Amino acid sequence: MLSPDEERELREKVRRELEEAEAERIRQKRLLEEQEEKKRLEQERERIILEEKEKFYEERGLHKYVNHFGRVEWLTPEEIEARKKKVVRRKRANSKHSKHHSRPARKVLDLVLLGVVLVAGVAVTMYLAGTSQLNSDSCGCLWICSDVKDAAIFIDGKLSGRVTDALIEKIKEGEHTVSVSRPGYSAFPQQVQVKVPRGETVKLEFRLRKVD
User: Fold this and answer.
1) Which of 75, 101, 100, 102 has the alpha carbon at shortest distance from 86?
2) 205 pLDDT band (50/70/90 cuts)?
3) Which among 154, 178, 149 has a CA at the least distance from the CA of 165?
4) Which of 19, 97, 136, 160 has its CA 20 to 30 A from that of 193?
5) How many domains does the chain contain in total?
6) In terms of Cα–Cα distance, which of 166, 163, 168, 195 is closest to 181?
7) One domain for residues 55 and 5
8) What is the pLDDT of residues 97-119, one digit of tens each?
9) CA 21, 22, 27, 29 torsion: positive or negative?
């Protein structure tokens, strides 16, 4: 249990921390309000300046015009019309120049793209042919039978999607685990570890016994 002095010191400490936190909150709030007020005044000044500028030029018969650099100019209607015609002439000239110079470039690009497509097609064809030959050369087959037919075939613990009796092709060369399963039956042997040679067919036989 705290002594009276300890309790008093703790309460004073908590009170000081709360007062400091509250003072900081008030300071941040005032700072934010000052920033918002400054921003509002700046926007108000900009609005007044813009209004007076527009009023000044409009009284003299000038109109706002944004040039191709994105800058605002105050011009007479005749000057604005002349600027617009100049822009149209420039666009037409650029369009003709672009078409004249782009035709040979486009033809070259089309030929390059055609060459790339042809080379890619030949490469893909050769790759697929090589892959097919490689897969064929590095695989064997499994001929899996059972005395009770329609047992599901598992290879390396995965369902093959085939049932006995079945010839399963394209089995990768090497060691594999084979088993069969049919509801209500027990398989003997339960599973077989078999080595599949390249390009050969290995036959496996399973006996199924009905479970009482």
Assistant:
1) 75
2) very high
3) 149
4) 136
5) 3
6) 163
7) yes
8) 665 555 666 667 767 776 765 66
9) positive
